[in-house]
Amino acid sequence: MPVPSLPRPLWPSWSPLRRRVASATHLSLFLDYDGTLVPLVDHPSRARLSPAMKRLLQRLAGRPGVWVALVSGRSLADVKRMVGLAGLCYVGNHGLELQGPALRYVNPVARATRPLLAHLGGRLTQALASIPGAWVEDKALTLSVHYRRVAAVERLRVRNAFYQVVRPSQEQRRIRVTAGKDVFELRPPVRWTKGTMLSWLLTRQRALAGRASVLPVCLGDDATDEDAFEALGDRGITVAVGPSTPLTRARYYVKSPADVQRLLERILAARPPSSALRASERRFHPHADSDG
User: Fold this and answer.
1) Among 187, 212, 237, which residue terminates a domain?
2) Could you tell me the residue range of the domain that residue 125 belongs to?
3) Average pLDDT over residues 156-183
4) Which end of the chain is more exposed for a tag (fewer CB within 10 A), N or C?
5) What is the reported pTM?
6) Does 1 map to a domain?
7) What is the structure's pLDDT at 280?
8) 289 catalytic, yes or no?
9) Which is the catalytic residue, given 32, 78, 222, 227?
């Protein structure tokens, strides 16, 4: 299990990494959305995928032996709407829900916690109404309190108002509280994270692949992506994007979503198209199944 440490810059290590990417029978890409595929912006609705990045994801998903999963803190419906591509696996709410080729999942504890989160969301909206720039995002299975646009002198008010509302439920272990880049998160009381979902998906993919090799590649930029980096460990390639702290469980780092696009282009070039799929590749490849 990796411990947080200083990651290496990716580009000086690309040559040996390229050989691993090219030689693996199957390649699993686990990609965060905000801050990874798109730059961070002041409101999530403005984080639009560029046409070039969208085409790149589509081409990667169409490569034999390549499987693409978007693993986001957004709701499943939101990340699907923002990306809008078939043949991908979409993971929402930090792993609590999933939809993809022949795959469906909603965490039962998260589903049962929805009424409490809806209640807390209403109270938080009232408590934060007087703080310009603070707002509550209801993602059904989780809640996010955003304060990216809040003035620095007002941020302590956000924190105090947030904990005044949620602390009783937190102390009763009816919810979990986490934090990211300029956001507080309310989650159901279950240890089910991006890392849990990544491990589950990777186990499934390796079962489908049989004896063929599966190389996972995981990219993310925020604290919740550390769970995925930790779960993957040394079993694949982990890349932090513009790390929010000097220490991360990812082994490598790149500076920005522009670097992510450059990396994905290089991965695509290392995985040339093939006219035929072997049996294990056909089982593994998303287009071998129906989306639903």
Assistant:
1) 187
2) 108-187
3) 96
4) N
5) 0.89
6) no
7) 45
8) no
9) 32
